[in-house]
Amino acid sequence: MSPDIIALAFLIVPLAVLLALRVNASLVFLSACLGAVLLHYVGDEASDFSNMFLPFLGSNTFKVVLVFLPVVLTTIFMIKTVRGASQLLNILPAIGTSLLLTIMAVPLLPGSLVAQVQLSTAWEKIVQFQALIVGASALVCLFFLWTQRPKTGHDKHGKRH
Length: 161
Description:
The chain is mainly α. It has 8 helices and no strands.
């Protein structure tokens, strides 16, 4: 299979899932960030601990689960949480989330698949603009979250019951 097709699949599948299920992509982005923090701070210790009880589960496999479990759970729990005009706005956070998930997933793949993906021009561009992708996606997701906050009732103060 072509390296470009594999790289594009990593980008398109999460994007399609988030949009089709109408999931708040900003929350999934934050869950991906949580997975990265978990991997960084507790990954090695948790992997060693899991090897005692689940020796058939490799260290790398456990790390993939640790990174992507918050993403999968958030996606499941947030199905159909984006409605109306917000669906159109959700496209930008969904693209950013898809790019972030790709950046996080590729290094955790088995060696031969990593090598294939890293040969693609799409992956080269992603790596080249990685800092910009993560920073801009974070800002877009924050903006989307801020615009989704519940409206406060101004009319409650003027009326007496």
